[in-house]
Amino acid sequence: MKHETVLVLDFGGQYNELIARRVRDLGVYCEVHPYGKALDKIKELSPIGIIFTGGPNSVYAEGAPMVDPAVFRQGLPVLGLCYGLQMMSHVLGGEVQSAPTREFGKTPVHYNTESLLFKGMPEEAICWMSHVDYVSRLPEGFTAICHTAATANAGIQCEEKGLYGVQFHPEVEHTQFGNDILKNFLYEICHAKGDWSMKDYARTTVEALREQIGDGKVLLALSGGVDSSVAAALLDRAVGDKLTCIFVDHGLMRKNEGDEVEAAFAGRGMRFIRVNAEQRFLAKLAGVTEPERKRKIIGEEFIRVFEEEAKKIGKVDFLAQGTIYPDVIESGAGDAAVIKSHHNVGGLPDYVDFKEIVEPLRLLFKDEVRRLGLELGLPEYLVWRQPFPGPGLAIRVIGEVTKERLDILRDADAIFREELAQAGLSRKVHQYFAVLTNNRSVGVMGDFRTYDYTLALRGVTTTDFMTADWARIPYDVLEKVSSRIINEVAHINRIVYDITSKPPATIEWE
Ligand code: XMP
Prior knowledge:
Elements: E1 5-10, H1 16-25, E2 29-34, H2 38-45, E3 49-52, E4 78-81, H3 83-91, E5 95-111, E6 124-137, E7 143-147, E8 155-158, E9 163-166, H4 178-189, H5 198-213, E10 218-221, H6 226-239, E11 243-249, H7 257-265, E12 271-276, H8 278-285, H9 291-313, E13 318-320, H10 325-328, H11 348-351, E14 356-358, H12 366-375, H13 380-383, H14 403-422, E15 431-445, E16 448-461, E17 469-470, H15 475-488, E18 492-497
Parallel strand pairs: 1-2, 1-3, 3-4, 4-9, 10-11, 10-13, 11-12, 13-14, 16-18
Antiparallel strand pairs: 5-6, 5-7, 7-8, 8-9, 15-16, 16-17
Helix pairs in contact: 5-6, 5-12, 6-12, 8-9, 14-15
Bound molecules: xanthosine-5'-monophosphate (XMP).
């Protein structure tokens, strides 16, 4: 399953993962690793080229990150970006100085389009600069290939050795033709063939899985989330009847979700076991109001149900997990550990009897997982599913969780989701849901006094779910959602929209 690989060495810049994404989108597999592991990684990955990222340091600062000079003796093409350029110049005997005028933001740049790096590009364009230092004297054998008003050596090359660098950031959108620069590096300088596409990935991974699994039995815990669903579809294509998927339906899913998961997987030829465990979970949750206790009870019960089902199958050879790239690799310029453990199915390996773990998505970013899911024929509603917490609606029903309250929430939440989709907002708002509060208030419907629940709507935009802003959903969409819920769902007489960001609030209410 070896793909041509480009190694991105991380010097602490902000755009490192973005560089990897751009390279992959251009058809070349790419991994980000800390700069200190450069030689090990070169041996392990046999890359076709290396990219040095930017970083916050000055090459003259104490402890500034430097690449091992031996990296330049491997005969591999290198592209240094921003700090990466300065560091390369410094290590190879050039000089870096603090600039009298700092360049920041959109900056006009003049390219020498005879350089392979700028082949086919216009001679003038806008680039995104963000630097204080600049290369004041080039290392031997290098020439300048682009300049700005303030910086003569905004781009440099030593064509003979395949070493290139630019002072700006081709990976960000503000740099016009930035993608062409990366593409030229990959295809003109590293001579990539471009063997990274989801179609190829699906094909080569299927072959590799067949070889690895042979006649063995594979077990997968399917949650219905994107990652485990795509892992299931991939394994199904690879080994079909050797795969058993266990889907523990805890009765805390959104409206129709359990049936949707079943519809997508049952009948594909693999063994798909849906355990309807609603009663068990609700019995355990009866009378429980404290959020962390709810989580704990659900987590433990999940393991118990899964274990019972797994035991019926007996010994399996492989336990499959939907681990993806961000779960595996934690880049960082420091020498800190590179591996982060995967928490989605925490604990499973301890109590299921198996020989080996298979993680067929561990090279992929989330949106690559989605593309692969579509490639494998999974329905859009599974592939584009927004994140959904393991404890499900139990933490969106504030206070005690009962079947009746879950059903009220499910109906209201379904309307909210429907209307957001209708308004074309379902991918723009990154997570959105309804919360059934335990607050009741007085209302009037027709001529009658009501005393019913307040429902809260929550929508957030975020990149990493660590911080989030409340989504500016247009008033007319909120109005439609509100009036439909009040009219169509019994026991709700008041609806509020949550306008707090995270922090200080969290995304979920519990
Ligand atoms: P918070 O509420 O912490 O949520 O801002 C951040 C993201 O994590 C999800 N979340 C959970 N996911 N188990 C999960 O698997 C949980 O107990 C849990 N709590 C929150 C939440 O939906 C959001 O995407």
